[in-house]
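Minutes, structural biology subgroup

Action item carried over from last meeting: produce the structure token record for Transcriptional regulator (Sphingobium xenophagum). EB confirmed the sequence was re-checked against the source entry. Recorded below for completeness.
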Amino acid sequence: MAASTTMTIRVTPDLKEKLGRLAHNTRRTKSYLAAEAVEAYVTRELQIIEGIERGLADVEAGRVTPHDAAMDRIDAAIAAAAKNAA
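Output recorded by EB:
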């Protein structure tokens, strides 16, 4: 089992009740479900931030596509998909 630590958070009574119902219905502890939710949220947010940082680095390095060129590629992809769907 991985090491863990304790953290206290404040939630609304409504959220606490919903978490309790979910825990009961899934036969998991509220602590387990809360930790899973925090893990998923933090992982997703870090991925977003890292993607933004990569994008900013691309801009800084000049690795960009002009808007008109990007829209032309998108329009061509949509047209190709519509043609294939017909």
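Discussion: Helices lie at 13-26, 30-61, 67-85.
Next step: EB to file the record with the rest of the batch.
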